[in-house]
Please model this.
Amino acid sequence: MDGTEAAYPQQMNSDVMIYTTRWCPYCIRAKGLLTSKGVDYREIPVDGDRALREEMAGRAGKTSVPQIWIGEQHVGGCDELFALERAGRLDIMLGSSAASA
Model:
């Protein structure tokens, strides 16, 4: 691990990536949901790093954080992540990502 990946017991083996900033409450909330599910995710902090933020904006088409991917699927931000959870689709996406990894 390179220090930007979160490790938790009983991890879901999915390919989850999340662009964040340190003090963003939505980033903290999204990471909390993933952590509560035991998801191993790669966090890319964009604080003060213009190149990383531009990379994120280019991939997501948005400049706000967090920006979340499950596998190759761009989920969006915190609101979209929680909407997937409420609809019962998040675990399915996480499982699909794990199966294709």
About this structure: The chain is about 45% helix and 25% strand. Residues 9 and 19 are 22 Å apart (CA to CA).
